TrEMBL record:
GO molecular function term, any single one: oxidoreductase activity, acting on paired donors, with incorporation or reduction of molecular oxygen, NAD(P)H as one donor, and incorporation of one atom of oxygen
Swiss-Prot/TrEMBL keywords: FAD, Flavoprotein
Necessary cofactors: FAD
Gene3D superfamilies: 3.30.70.2450, FAD/NAD(P)-binding domain
Protein name (Swiss-Prot/TrEMBL): 2-polyprenyl-6-methoxyphenol hydroxylase-like FAD-dependent oxidoreductase
Keyword Flavoprotein: yes
SUPFAM superfamilies: FAD/NAD(P)-binding domain (SSF51905)
Domain FAD-binding: 3-341
Amino acid sequence: MENVLIAGAGPTGLALALWLTKFGIQVRIVDKSAGPGETSRAMVVQARTLELYRQLGLAGPVVAAAHLNPALNLWTRGQHRARVDLADAGAGLTPYPFIAVYPQDQHERLLIEHLAAMGVNVERNTELMAFGESKDGVAVRLKLPDGSEQAVTVAYLAGCDGARSTVRHQLGTGFEGGTYQQVFYVADVEADGLAPADELHVALDSGDFALLLPYGKEGRKRLIGTVRDERAEKADTLTFDDVRQDAIGRLGLQVHRVHWFSTYRVHHRVAEAFRRGRIFLLGDAAHIHSPAGGQGMNTGILDANNLAWKLADVIHARAPARLLDSYALERQAFARRLVATTDRVFTLATSEGHIADFIKTHILPTFVSLASSLDEARGFLFRTVSQTMLHYRDSPLSEGRAGEVHGGDRLPWVRGAAGDNFGPLDSGAWQVHVYGTATEALTAWCERHRLPLHVLAWTPAHHEAGFARDALYLLRPDGYVALADPQGAVEALERYFRSQGCVWAQPVA
């Protein structure tokens, strides 16, 4: 019996397959499409995604291929009102202190290539038709490329099959939320006339919204905006020539070529349950929201990472099945907060009326202009959109506090002369970090139980990052702190493992 069947080969499903394969889990990934997408709406790869991609050897290739945008420009009624320089907003916070614009279609091809290099190929034109769960596994019926059907049994089923998820529908899980009234378009264009040409531009007008993201070469840009008035009623038949936005026209943007154009509606929904027994929902199958902040694809990839190491620990008998409950608890709570946040931002950006216009054209630009001059404000903006401030402090897997670092926090990043403290995380293994000096008892215990221990010489930078000297930090495979103990005590580790019922630390025979 295969370990995990993944339905859906978008970024979420591909990332899940990559991490599971890295952790030694046998996977099968199917998709009903004939090939990877040729167009994409998702454009931004956030810093937290890149941090986790280091485990897979993907961070370097993504950064090398991406367009790194140093600033965001805000325009209202054709006037430049604010510029937020993001080039150093994340400095000292992450190895990737920038916004990486990397279209989803290129992103998917990169993931497919790396997965194939690991010996796993996507099974195309293969559709999940039905499934049923038993105590020992999930019986799945697949429709193969030749039209025949195949019955297989797997230990777990992961629904990464998008907003119209077959897995979610057959589970009967609610998908509460709504749909924005506006119709939006997305276009891949070659354009110029707007400076600086290599930066992000957001234009707000009376009810209008436009976002321009440069990427690649030859003036290639991704343009996203609203479809106004009666044209929205015939959105399915529109072409780019039919779009006449005040927000674009007043910018002086000259579009020379349109490579592709599409219209769509934006939804904001979160699944009622992310897990039912041996079946899981991830990515757009579990949550969809506005494109504000470039969060959607990144959130799905983080879903995949969160679930992958937990499935691996359970399948390898290092943890009880109840560990899988924490996937839904951690990721669903974040998805609900994210949907609520992006909904407020998106509603403001696209709303119409005198009050909304006044806020967008007067109050918002003044606020953004002021905030752009404050390092703390720019840092907060970067931490928010990059998902580096995401934490799981309320998770049943999180315990303790040492210094300013709590159980459930992302491990603070510190760069040293010989590398950074994220280097050991590349293994994707449970491990202990001590900044300063580890006790002999802790060193002996970790050696005896084959739990990797990394002791880093104390520096002022560790204090600035919030660490406590000589404290013990037990890290999960995803780089979040599971346990923080200021005394660096072996007893704290033993109590933690006992309470979780896990054997992540294996005594040497």
